[in-house]
Structure formats: C-alpha cells, structure tokens
Amino acid sequence: MTRKINAKDIPALACELRAGDSVLLSGSVYTARDAAHKRLCALLDKALPLPFDMAGAVIYYAGPTPAPPGLPIGSAGPTTSSRMDVYTPALLRAGLRGIIGKGPRRPEVCRAIAEAEAVYFCALGGAGALAARCILSCEEIAFPELGCESVKRLTFADFPLIVGVDVTGGSLF
C-alpha cells in the first residue's frame, strides 16, 4: 500500500514509517547537494541564520536542470546520498527531518537519522525527467552562484519515494 503524506507532516509521521514503505510525498521540499551542504554547515558552525527553517524540513539531494519553456523545472533526479554523509548529522541536529536521495548511507548516518526521528527516502535514480512531472514549482532561495546546485524550494505533488532508513534504524540496504 502506498501512503500519501505531506512534507510538513513528516515529523509527526516518522515513527509510523518503515524501511520499504512506499510514499507519495507532496508539499515543500528544498534541494541541496554537496556545495550547498558545505555552506549550510558553515552557517551552522558560525551560528548564522540559514536560508530556510531547518526545523522539520525535507532536503532533496538534487541539482535540477533549467526549466524548458512552459515547465517549472527540468530534469530533477536524485544525487548519490553518501556524498552528503559528512554533513547530514549536523543538519539533523539543526532540525532536518526528511532526506531524499539514492543509495545506502553510512552506519553512523543511519544512527543519526534514527536518533533524530527522521526519515531517509529513496527516489528512483535515472528518471529525472519523470520525477520532474511531480514538481509543481521551483524557486531559487539561496546560493545562486552555485548554479544547478543552488538551494531551491520545490513544491511536490505525489512524488514517489520508498523509505530507505526509518526511525528504528531499519534500512533497505
């Protein structure tokens, strides 16, 4: 059974989700890849404000391509999650509660996800154009000089995901 959830409800629903569950996610999600993660963590280290409220936020490890005419976004497939493992525990401590990417996570990141009562979702790799069909809007909100790796606010509509790591430490991997 596939469960429909809104991104803002992930903190309340995280304890109900288990590795392997299918989810259709709607609501606001932020994109961030390696370079943006490095900057977000630098801001946290200096106790400076972040470009968005991390409390309860969902980050999608993606660097969408420019939007073709008439569409809100170009291809928007997931990036390999392990590249963000060095930054993930700090963002979880700052309030991050949902993560979307592809591939396995290091054991210490899985523990940090469980301790934060967060959820790691897996998106289908290699299907960025298909994923873009589930994105209603895209707004660049931080680090425009990073190009496709800038932080963007996306609005999802039934974006298909599978729970990869749950609050019990359960993992697809």
Structure at a glance:
The protein has 173 residues and is α/β, with parallel strands linked by helices.
Into which percent range does the helicity of residues fall?
Answer: 10-25%
Q: Which second-level CATH architecture applies?
A: Alpha-Beta Barrel
Number of domains: 1
CATH superfamily: Fe-S hydro-lyase, tartrate dehydratase beta-type, catalytic domain
Structural class: alpha/beta
- How far apart are the first and last residues' alpha carbons, in Å? 21 Å
Strand percent estimate: 25-35%
Describe the structure.
- The protein is of the alpha/beta class and 173 residues long.
- It has a single domain, classed as Fe-S hydro-lyase, tartrate dehydratase beta-type, catalytic domain (fumarase).
- It has five helices and seven strands, in the order βαβαβαβαβαββ.
- The chain has a five-stranded mixed β-barrel.
- The two termini are 21 Å apart.
- The relative contact order is 0.25.
Helix-strand blueprint:
Layout: E1 2-6, H1 10-13, E2 22-31, H2 34-45, E3 58-60, H3 88-93, E4 98-101, H4 107-115, E5 119-122, H5 128-132, E6 135-142, E7 151-165
Parallel strand pairs: 1-2, 2-3, 3-4, 4-5
Antiparallel strand pairs: 2-7, 5-7, 6-7
Supply database-style keywords.
173 residues, alpha/beta, fumarase, 5-stranded mixed β-barrel, 7 strands
